[in-house]
Amino acid sequence: MKEISNLINYREGVKVVDATLRDGGLVNDFYFTDKFVRDLYLANIKAGVDYMEFGYKADKEMFDVNKFGKWKFCSEEDLREIVGDNNTDLKIAVMADVGRCDYKNDIIDRSESVIDLIRVATYLHQIPTAVDMIEDAHKKGYEVSCNIMAISTAQENDLRAALDILGKSPVDVFYIVDSFGAMYPEQLQRLAAVYTEFADKYGKKVGIHAHNNQQLAFANTIEAVGDGVDYLDATYSSMGRGAGNCAMELLLGFLKNPKYNVYPVFRFIEEHMNKLREEGVVWGYDMQYLMTGLLNQHPRSAIAFTKDNRKDYAEFYKEIIIMD
Amino acid sequence: MKEISNLINYREGVKVVDATLRDGGLVNDFYFTDKFVRDLYLANIKAGVDYMEFGYKADKEMFDVNKFGKWKFCSEEDLREIVGDNNTDLKIAVMADVGRCDYKNDIIDRSESVIDLIRVATYLHQIPTAVDMIEDAHKKGYEVSCNIMAISTAQENDLRAALDILGKSPVDVFYIVDSFGAMYPEQLQRLAAVYTEFADKYGKKVGIHAHNNQQLAFANTIEAVGDGVDYLDATYSSMGRGAGNCAMELLLGFLKNPKYNVYPVFRFIEEHMNKLREEGVVWGYDMQYLMTGLLNQHPRSAIAFTKDNRKDYAEFYKEIIIMD
Q1: CB A10 within 8 Å of CB A256
Q2: Where are the beta strands (DSSP E) in chain A?
Q3: What pLDDT score was predicted for residue B2?
Q4: Most buried pick, B58, B106, B304, B312, via CB within 10 A?
């Protein structure tokens, strides 16, 4: 039975991380209006959300600033334009991808920044570089998480080796990232047991970032809470790459800590999210994402299928089965 | 850990029940084209689905035959028009609601019918009438299930009393019906333990019919499989009342019995389900259904909200919180 099995109590250590701009930005190239971002910031504050991830710290040498909205880069000026000095309880996070971030130059000292948390996103085979980024961010004064992507394709022994390396680094949170939306709650439970084993050993926390390919992002997230996972990613209306993420409205409806309030989330969705869809931004559960999730594949083929406005699901299934 | 916890094996006793016409009929008043119904029948056969529920046996004294499609009534002639003598492995089911079915007259002997399974739908306080219907159907030669609706509002002691009465009846399957989409997998696990306790005592099977208000219909269904529940309801593209049901495409993707095949499901969805939506038939996860699920309320207010094309989620939330 789960730690919070009566479903009536809560655990103080649980933190909710709004990843709407960052993961959602992947489906609209980060072109959010300032009003959207400011309203989201205010909604998060009212809802009691713990962290708001504004986007990436992407390398401007690699990515053309004219082809993406500003939240791909999250400059200090752009952040302050929205949050001022952020004199609130809501902490600010950004993501830094291994191999796509000039972290030594683009991440300044925390004392000069409104950012609180650097989320280092890595594949398992990039852990040594991730550790260098973690050390850099920690030295600059930040909280740091390490988000290990595509975990549904990892060998358990490799994962254990990685968590042992990360355990000795100054990282604060190990993240389970089900990038492919391929995992079932039962598998999540076993994976969480491996993560928490190393987290307990090294005094770290564990987080989860789920995708909704099989409509299990919320189910996997609440499974994880019951397994001792503390940092929970969610996005408004599930907005995120492909099938999207765990829905913020579901998660805040579920969590029982009185500091959380789902009502501002409903208000924000009413004002902004349906409009985004009407403007043609596409995300969320659909057959092509279910298929890549089922086959434990990267969603890139399903994203291309979506972009091409294809609806020939059966043909697509044959294509990816052949590639499998 | 679950009985099928390696997720790689399967249990022979698991049965998949397609409820698309019956639960889906609630959102289009059962006006399906014959082509839709025939293609669905063929898709179910190819997919290895075990039972196909065609609709209700509704009382024509109570319901105007001019206001509903024929699957509200499921006459023997209409069934045979689609399935002939049904010389296939797919069994035929219909639902009979307590208080809305003239079962003594409208359900004929199984020897003269293509129907195999009568699903008696009841609220907990109607169990004695349900038992009368069960005895009637059993005497006529049918397999019989008892689908106890709105189970998320039941007191455990009342449920135990009901299952003890049903255990002594000739019913074959006890059904968990989360009509309000209010249950979390953990609660489902505890509820399944109560059901299976009585099922084991009396030699019955257990089934589950889930709703997707909190995007947990599939998660609750696979939780239930792991808890020993054998009869699993699903609908193509989740089509069903309000937020809809456990998606057939998710369920057949998950189940490992080689007799199941998800490909015909994808083909059917491609040909028929998106078209239904384009024609204006509305179902599926949305804020209003999440809200009634969260508050463990009947979805009727959310259905009215949907029918009125309202999108003022926050106002609706206030309305139902006040009624709560």
Answers
A1: yes
A2: 15-18, 51-56, 91-97, 117-122, 143-148, 173-177, 205-209, 231-234
A3: 56
A4: B58
H-type alpha helices, chain B: 20-28, 34-47, 76-83, 103-106, 127-139, 156-168, 185-202, 217-226, 248-254, 263-268, 274-278, 287-294, 300-307, 313-323
User: Closest Cα partner for A19 from A46, A49, A63?
Assistant: A49
Please list every residue in chain A whose beta carbon sits closer than 8 Å to the beta carbon of residue B5. 186
Asked if residues B173 and B148 have their Cβ atoms less than 8 Å apart, the reply is no
Closest partner residue to B186 (CB to CB) among A5, A287, A312 is A5
- For residue A2, the chain B residue with the least C-alpha distance is B186
| B216 interaction partners in chain A (CB closer than 8 Å) | 218-219
Query: Among residues of chain B, what percentage have pLDDT more than 90?
Result: 96
Low-confidence ranges of chain A (pLDDT < 70): 1-6, 324
Helices first, then strands: H and E counts in chain B: 14, 8
Helices (H) and strands (E) in chain A, counts: 14, 8
Rounded to a whole number, what is the distance in Å from the CA of B161 to chain A's nearest CA?
23
**Contacting residues of B for A226, CB less than 8 Å apart:** 186
Q: What is the reported pTM?
A: 0.96
Side-chain-side CA neighbours of B119 within 13 Å: the count stands at 29
Q: How many other CB atoms are found less than 10 A from the CB of residue A151?
A: 24
B274 vs A contacts (CB less than 8 Å): 311
The span from the CA of B79 to the CA of B238, in Å, is 23
Evaluate if residue B32 carries a pLDDT over 70.
yes
Residues 6+ apart with CB under 8 A from A57: A73, A74, A94, A95, A96, A101, A103, A106, A107, A118
Give A73 to chain B, closest Cα distance, Å: 32
Interhelix angle B313-323/B300-307, nearest 10 degrees: 150
* CA trace torsion B71, B74, B78, B81 (10° rounding): 90
Q: Is A147 helix (H, G, I), strand (E, B) or coil?
A: strand
Joined together, the tokens standing for residue A244 give 């999207």
CB–CB of A128/A153 below 8 Å?
no
Do β-strands A91-97 and A117-122 pair in parallel, antiparallel, or remain unpaired? parallel
Whether the CB-CB separation of B56 and B90 falls below 8 Å is answered with no
Query: Can you give the length of chain B in residues?
Result: 324
CB-based contacts of B277-282 (< 8 A; 24+ apart in sequence): B281/B27, B281/B28, B282/B27, B282/B306
Distance from B253 to chain A by nearest Cα, in Å? Answer: 7
Task: Report which of B129, B233, B255, B253 is spatially closest to residue B178, judged by C-alpha positions.
Answer: B233
Which residue, chain included where needed, has tokens 């103080």?
A12
- Give the pair of three-digit tokens for residue B264: 């015909």
Query: For tokens 């080796």, what's the residue?
Result: A161
* Cα distances (Å, whole numbers) of residue A180 to A126, A217, B125, B324: 18, 11, 45, 39
Position A1 scores a pLDDT of 45
Our CA angle for B167, B168, B174, nearest 5°, is 25
